């Protein structure tokens, strides 16, 4: 299948428009600042002293200002969640763009790191220039106290250190392997901003305040014309000296220099206050611990925790970063009929192992106790809920949900909502593909799937839900033993799904329609799905790709 322009625009258009705008703005402010410092009259003497190092350090600093303010905005999750749910963001396109907020954050973060390297490199050259080109003529311009002195910037060194820690701990392998390290190191961002705001009040680089009374390169009043032939910077500034002589430019006063008002404050303060306000709101909102109603151990090291929290409301599909740092997807949301909500946690690392140990210390299987007779569970705090791509499943006539292993949880939440009431949504047909390594994994939600299947058959909509379960490690056909799971028997297939064939089939039965594709699965699956969504479809169907990301 080749690339289809229509599909590509539907999937990548908005994202690339934002990227191009961001790149253009960054390039423009870099270039504008570069030119200003290279040829601006007020920087003439400073430029003579520092050369290209001045232009590059200042231009990169402006790009850093822009990105240090932008990087926080996509992380104002509560504000984005509110925006997502309001009429202001009424188009699906805009909501899908909001789902790319994490990608935009990472792009700005990487830009901060790259431009920091450029900035630091240029300033290292400046430190040497300040030292070896110590100006006896304009002492106010110097940072060094004497020729040969190198002055290191403490705040600059600290910033580099914090950024290095944040950058290394943000790598994909750390995020996947040890989320806690990423999370706690990432919270150094507040130290980063404090030091950044201190960094810019240093005022090492000064501009000339009196270019009218002292045009750059003018001849000092106390020097004769003959004397001015030996102008110390004649070679560097030959043109200017010749010109000033021609125009008989004589300095009316000595050059005065002054540090800039730190512009970083203007760039950063708004987003920083907004983000801190949002964190404070989130802190207050999640401050009341939840009541754990039940903890159930499922096959394949999965535990289900059902909870209750006053006035906790979530739209199906939303995510809740739960308990200190772990981000999880609710597997069921509170509804009108049921106030509790649940999460399914797969025990894969030290954090989840510890979590499971605290909740189910010595019990083999499950524990569901009456509220009045509850065990003493550890206190659990839930942050969120926050917007997520899965919310859009209901807003297409046809949606395809592809889950891998525990990635099924956001879709389980969707199924719960459909089980509650499926008629209220635009959705008319849901393809549900679930790929697992072990047969037992299907038991996590087998009851839910059968319940929804039964309800739809009873209400005369057997075509509404199309379930396909794939078991990848088995060689021969196996099945869920329990008779109550009979509807799933014929829907269980062996091996990995043939996604291309599936797309062709869906395309044939939904010609010229827009189909929403939702993925919460390992990278290999999501990559293949993304490619298929951008591919040409003979049936004229456009597949819009949406991805749930947890790292
Ligand atoms: N919702 C949530 O709360 C959370 C969701 N997740 C998400 O869930 C995903 C799945 O996690 P996990 O349970 O560990 O998944 P698994 O590693 O157990 O993989 C699930 C299935 O996907 C199959 N698979 C892997 N690659 C491909 C491929 N290229 N094509 C077809 N099938 C493939 C595997 O088949 P095979 O046996 O052949 O490899 C396996 O059967 C994670 O990647 C993450 O994105 C993670 C944490 C929390
Ligand atoms: C080096 C590149 C960076 C990468 C790869 C990166 C990655 C991430 C990711 C993946 C998240 C989301 C965490 C989650 O949802 O679980 C995040 C959150 C965040 N990052 Fe970054 N980041 C980077 C740089 C930065 C920088 C430079 C700053 C600020 C100085 C910053 C500040 C934040 C903040 C404030 C959050 C939000 C935490 C929250 O409220 O949940 N990041 N980052």
Automatic annotation (TrEMBL):
<feature type="transmembrane region" description="Helical">
    <location>
        <begin position="104"/>
        <end position="130"/>
    </location>
</feature>
<dbReference type="InterPro" id="IPR013121">
    <property type="entry name" value="Fe_red_NAD-bd_6"/>
</dbReference>
<dbReference type="GO" id="GO:0042554">
    <property type="term" value="P:superoxide anion generation"/>
</dbReference>
<dbReference type="InterPro" id="IPR050369">
    <property type="entry name" value="RBOH/FRE"/>
</dbReference>
<dbReference type="InterPro" id="IPR039261">
    <property type="entry name" value="FNR_nucleotide-bd"/>
</dbReference>
<feature type="transmembrane region" description="Helical">
    <location>
        <begin position="63"/>
        <end position="83"/>
    </location>
</feature>
<feature type="domain" description="Ferric oxidoreductase">
    <location>
        <begin position="81"/>
        <end position="196"/>
    </location>
</feature>
<feature type="domain" description="Ferric reductase NAD binding">
    <location>
        <begin position="396"/>
        <end position="534"/>
    </location>
</feature>
<keyword id="KW-0472">Membrane</keyword>
<dbReference type="InterPro" id="IPR013130">
    <property type="entry name" value="Fe3_Rdtase_TM_dom"/>
</dbReference>
<dbReference type="GO" id="GO:0016175">
    <property type="term" value="F:superoxide-generating NAD(P)H oxidase activity"/>
</dbReference>
<keyword id="KW-0560">Oxidoreductase</keyword>
<feature type="transmembrane region" description="Helical">
    <location>
        <begin position="150"/>
        <end position="169"/>
    </location>
</feature>
<keyword id="KW-1133">Transmembrane helix</keyword>
<keyword id="KW-0812">Transmembrane</keyword>
<dbReference type="InterPro" id="IPR000778">
    <property type="entry name" value="Cyt_b245_heavy_chain"/>
</dbReference>
<dbReference type="GO" id="GO:0043020">
    <property type="term" value="C:NADPH oxidase complex"/>
</dbReference>
<protein>
    <recommendedName>
        <fullName>FAD-binding FR-type domain-containing protein</fullName>
    </recommendedName>
</protein>
<dbReference type="GO" id="GO:0006952">
    <property type="term" value="P:defense response"/>
</dbReference>
<feature type="transmembrane region" description="Helical">
    <location>
        <begin position="181"/>
        <end position="205"/>
    </location>
</feature>
<dbReference type="Pfam" id="PF08030">
    <property type="entry name" value="NAD_binding_6"/>
</dbReference>
<feature type="transmembrane region" description="Helical">
    <location>
        <begin position="20"/>
        <end position="43"/>
    </location>
</feature>
<dbReference type="Pfam" id="PF01794">
    <property type="entry name" value="Ferric_reduct"/>
</dbReference>
